[in-house]
Amino acid sequence: MTDRRILLRRIPDGTPRPEDFEVAEAPPGPPLGPGQVRVRAEWLSLDPYVRALLSGRHFLRMPQPGEVLPAKAVARVVESRHATWRTGDRLVLETGLQSSAVSDAADAWRLHPGHVPASTALGILGMPGMTAYFGLLDVGQVRAGEVVLVSSAAGPVGSMVGQIAMLKGARAIGIAGSAEKCDWVRRVARFEACIDYRREDVDARLRELAPDGVHVFFDNTGGDLQHTVIGRRHLALGARVVLCGLVTQYNLKEAPPGPNLGVLMASRAKILPMVVYDYEHRREEFLREALAWHGAGRLAFKEDIVEGLEAAPAHFCRLMRGENFGKSLIRL
Amino acid sequence: MTDRRILLRRIPDGTPRPEDFEVAEAPPGPPLGPGQVRVRAEWLSLDPYVRALLSGRHFLRMPQPGEVLPAKAVARVVESRHATWRTGDRLVLETGLQSSAVSDAADAWRLHPGHVPASTALGILGMPGMTAYFGLLDVGQVRAGEVVLVSSAAGPVGSMVGQIAMLKGARAIGIAGSAEKCDWVRRVARFEACIDYRREDVDARLRELAPDGVHVFFDNTGGDLQHTVIGRRHLALGARVVLCGLVTQYNLKEAPPGPNLGVLMASRAKILPMVVYDYEHRREEFLREALAWHGAGRLAFKEDIVEGLEAAPAHFCRLMRGENFGKSLIRL
Description:
Chain A is of the alpha/beta class. The first copy, chain A, is 26% helix and 25% strand. The first copy, chain A, folds into two domains: 4-122 and 302-331, Quinone Oxidoreductase, Chain A, domain 1; 127-277, 3-Layer(aba) Sandwich (Rossmann fold). Chain A has helices at residues 49-55, 127-139, 156-167, 179-187, 202-209, 223-231, 263-267, 283-295, 312-320, and strands at 4-8, 21-25, 37-45, 72-80, 90-94, 100-103, 109-110, 147-151, 171-176, 193-196, 214-219, 235-243, 270-273, 303-307, 327-331. The A-B interface holds A 57-59, 222, 226-227, 243, 246, 249, 255-273, 275, 278 and B 57-59, 222, 226, 243, 246, 249, 255-273, 275, 278.
């Protein structure tokens, strides 16, 4: 089987189209240097932040045309000159969107043990789960009895935010982009409510659902929802806005203005950025608690899987149109 | 001498004009009820937040036409049925913009003792000073060696922010609106630098003065400066934006949009509101330290005084055009 990889053909203009990417045959990998491993991907993750990288507005490096797109993988070591990792080990690491990769494994961790599906290492037990966990508990400082509002509630970050909120005794209200997603958020993830922002008046619904305001607004989207929640005064006294994702603006050429900040004065609300990389040293703490919840059957999750690397460009474009439903994954 | 007071004639349309207000003869005050004092004002304070009240966007109550304008005073008790305050006591309290007032003195405190000018109780030792003190130290958490940037640097809050920053071992950079103000900020208040936003390119000057970014941005103005400092990426890693005043928008009918919040992610910067009323219970702590600094001659301050209540409307309008220089006061 030939190795394949997905290259960036050009920087997307607006919402990405499959022609912005290219499926290419990969040259044979180089011989391993000291400290390196060769891995073969089993699962590859598609994440919205990759579009932010392509906009040049993310703080991580902007990929250039001709380069392999960034992606995290669950991968098996097939050859090793690394001090820790052995052939046969299954790792979670950044490989790029390709079937095989050579890496110094600086960011790798061992796939969680046991009978938990491997794919969850890229979703509820991976970066999205950890983003939700530390974003809500450490940055957002949620307390029992508080109201947590989360956008992209059917996604891997949002669905975990609401479920962790409820596990900690808080109330969870979601916002999602279809009746089907909202239905899943309510019935399967068991949020108290979910607002369909494409068909409902978010401002009016929030006034009904959280008349005393929202204590933690976990913002995965920015844009109109941010203007509504912050600008229309839905923040409770002492609220925290966890600024986590800005998916509404990744496809835009210019970053649009934000809400007027004056409203923060009345509610004494803070705006706090959440950058998951800052929590890498606390991964064990997250995994311990998340694995226990998972083992007790208390974490619902939804995956949106396609087969084969060739399907990746179209799947990524669907993700960026908001047409995915659940964690976007490629099975190899 | 007849008692006089300043009434709101109508809600200003844009920048206030003297005709929006009215100097009126005050009716004789009512007999005192239990727990009340009658006070005679010696000094009255004009503050920009009063314009925010008139815009209806402040979290405190909006004054209505025909009512006395809000104002804090240094005033002497001339009659008392209050358990604590005696005739002859000098208090600092909310009286409204009038020469005499009846009050239950719920918010009153005793004028600081000693040889410190009484007017400073409305400036560096009053609400503006306390705003600077807790805003910088408690909300902004400034540390020695950090760079503090403050707008309205020649005003009572801004000039205290920079001076307290330096007293705590931090660096102070000001922004003000004239060469004369900038000169005072540098030479008298002894800031490291002061940018004249009307004549200099703030973005370019900040790149020179704080090439590694600003750690605390104490924002008294909002508007273009907020867009420049936050949006043009002048915040250092882990910066705190202390959101204190929005003087640029008090005269506007609609609150304008703020900067895009995405930039906070790269710098991990927080936006934190400062509401001085939340610190009322810590006034003694502030006064102890501020009086010691004042006693040691380490607090420069500038006052912009007019004589007589009749001068208040025009003086307030000057303040709202940014033409004042120093703490705006009326001596009765």
